[in-house]
Amino acid sequence: MSKTPEGDRSSGPWWWQRRRSAVLDIGLALLAGLECAFGAYGVVHDRLHLGVPAGAVAAALGVLAGLSLVVRRRWPAVPVLAAMVFVPGLFGVVLLVVSLYTLAATWEWPSRRLRVVLLSALAMVETFGMALFVLSVPAEPASAEPLPPYWVFVLIAAVMAVGLVVAPVATGLYVGARRRLIESLKDRAHGLETELDLLAERARERARRARLEERTRIAREMHDVVAHRVSLMVVHAAALERIIPKDPARAQESAKLVGDVGRQALDELREILGVLRMSETVEQPGPAADPADTLAELPRLVDQSRAAGMAVTLTVRGDRLPYAPEAERTAYRVVQEGLTNAHKHAGGAAVAVVLAYVPNGVRVVVVNERAARGAVGVVLPSGGNGLVGMRERVLALGGSFVAGPDGDGGFRVEAVLPSRLAVQRDRLVP
Is the pTM of this model over 0.70? Predict the structure, then answer.
């Protein structure tokens, strides 16, 4: 069955895709039928002198042959075979030309090229032979005028065969190839459109994830500022209530520390809010790490907790080795979070902070003992996100993180950051 590249079949009857295609085929069939009918009647009645009944039968067959163009889009070989029947009479030109054009244009190429070539070659040979026979054999046997050379008849017959066979076949091949190319381009355009829609959907999903990650990062920054700084302020405020009547000098020192911690919290909040107000059209880095949030500032962090009444010790092991800013800030935040948890959940318990520069990286540990009996802690709200955020930060840098109860009833927070984050290692890379 032929493949017709005419569009969709929603508006045409039977095998036609469009109504105007049906009108065109019926019109061509009527024209070809009239030509074949008159040609067949003239051959049978005028040349063969077989009488009117035989001429009428021949005319009826000619009409049927011409009407075969109605099915040219469904069965393109049928009108070609019908036209070859009338080629010896040198009529049915419309039927021959249209059927050969349809054969070349509508059949799949090159999957059916053999059939197209064979039928076209057969039609050309028959047309050439019949034209040569009619031209070389005079209508009247006796003629005084000399005949031209035989090669003239051959040339004229060849031109007629080319015009009646090669021209419509070549035109049909061109039109069919053009239609198939347009169809393939449409299919490719549709595929590209679908792919673009998919890429746009993926881009929207990536943008959504990026916004979610940015919100998560900002939430971590806010947690670092609020959880630790404000926790220290609440602890110192509670201590002030107890020591003002007994030790005014210490109370004054605690009040000053509360002010310093509050100012630090405000500075960090302003920094984060400033980043949030930046124009979205300019790509900006995240909040810059506070120069004070480094491992070298851990003694200051521990002193703040001591000033709040916590029994905390700091142990540093190994040779000091500078690490990348994000690594030092993450380790600092781990210690900060461990001390904040001790303030919240282990009031009066001793806390040990260990900073160790080991061969495989830097290790920070915060361990608090079991809360002392009868100790009255400060009630602080807890969202449960601090340790989760610390774990995500450490794992993002390729380190390891452990947090949970230890064997003595206390709580342990430990993180190890890999040695590849050391600044000296980075400088060795060319």
Answer: no
